# Entry
Amino acid sequence: MYLTRAYIDSLEHLYKINLINSVSGFKSANLIGTKSTKNITNVAVFSSVVHYGSAPPILGFVVRPSSVRRNTYDNIKETGYFTINHIHHDIIEDAHHTSAKYSSEISEFDKTNLKEEYLNDFYAPFVEGCPIKIGLKYIDEYYIKANGTILVLGEIIDLHINDSLIKEDGFIDLLEGNVTAINGLDAYTVPKIKTRLSYQRPKN
Amino acid sequence: MYLTRAYIDSLEHLYKINLINSVSGFKSANLIGTKSTKNITNVAVFSSVVHYGSAPPILGFVVRPSSVRRNTYDNIKETGYFTINHIHHDIIEDAHHTSAKYSSEISEFDKTNLKEEYLNDFYAPFVEGCPIKIGLKYIDEYYIKANGTILVLGEIIDLHINDSLIKEDGFIDLLEGNVTAINGLDAYTVPKIKTRLSYQRPKN
# Structure
């Protein structure tokens, strides 16, 4: 099927967001945990977390100022800290429910079976039971002129990983952790089989 | 395992990049196709393509100026156009090989079985056989001060999707397309089973 830009622009809203949210490929499935200065916690599903660098270790994610996930952004701006927690097989439903539009006065931890966990005095809540839990400090943000979204960048301060997932060369086996990936806005998959390839050099 | 930032910073280079490239979760697996003003094509694997918006449809990806993928960036800056093509099960090895450091005078299409394809007069080459092929026009870039990487944004101009993958509500089933996801720097997985959940509203 060939879809021109004019055709895409003419699509009905829900059809269009299903389509364009699927079109980039599989996405990371993360819960971002924050806590306001009033001590109200927040946890929300994000599928835009991306690696920006390893030295220093930097991750970024995209926030849409008009969305429910604005609470996440406000808490990070107020306090400087947030956590990224991997959505695993057992918490898919609760993780997805955090996309519901709760006010900033209500914690999604009180509306789901997700449990907040505090580790090593890190300010923001981790999500208990996640195989990978990352504590980050806000470093910078970029306002995207084209559509008003914001790229938020954080550096990794603390990292908690289930021991068995880390291999000899530093590779973290996400499949062994039953970590999910997201397809579109609402489909979750738990990949089962992987192929590791070698470092590639030019052929003659 | 608890890894402090000081410990992460002290890790050996390869261990560190394996670890931090795995830590964000599963990543999209895409081939970005470009063509220089000298008519030399380039195709390179990227795992940082992210959805920035649906109206207008905008995708972004991250490029490290010092890397081999600089050819991709240079071609986009020179010509304004690029393609994003989904890596599917049958081309994993060739797709991964595009990470080898070829000079800008050599096309990865000549060093692999990947075939360039031109559709509807779009300037940049698509990758033949990919279930999803996206033609994009460069719109903007953001220089990331923290580490010198660049976020490149493009708007979707043309979209080619295998008919059977698009569902009634616009959802594209990546699993039916045998589309891959990336774990870390070098592991590819083809997810097989998915769960679609409903739109979430607050509980009382």
Q: What stands out?
A: Chain B has one domain: 25-189.
